[in-house]
Amino acid sequence: MRKSQDVRLVLLTSIALSMTACRNQPQNCVDSKNRLLSPSACQTGGTSGAHYVYGGSSGGHVGDSVVGGSLTRGGFGSLGGFGEGGE
Amino acid sequence: MRRLTVNPRNSWQKRVEKVGLTYHTLPDGSPYWNESAYWQFTSAEIDRFEAATAELQKLALSAGDSMLDQDRLAQMGIPKEAMAAIRAAWNNEPPAIYGRFDLAYDGTSIKLLEYNADTSTGLLEASVVQWYWLQDCFPDSDQFNSLHEKLIAKWKDLKDYTTSPVYFASGGSEEDSMTVSYLRDTAEQGGMRTQHIGMHEIGWDSKRRCFVDLNNRPMGTLFKLYPWEWLLNEPFGPNALSTLPPDSPLQEYGPRKGRRQWGSMLWIEPIWKMMWSNKALLAILWELNPGHELLLPAYLGGPRHLRRYVRKPLLGREGSGIAVVQDGKVIAGSLDGDNTQGHVYQALATMAEAAGKTAVFGSWVIDGEPAGMGIRESSGPVTNNTSCFVPHLFR
Question: So what's the ipTM on this one?
Answer without folding.
Answer: 0.88
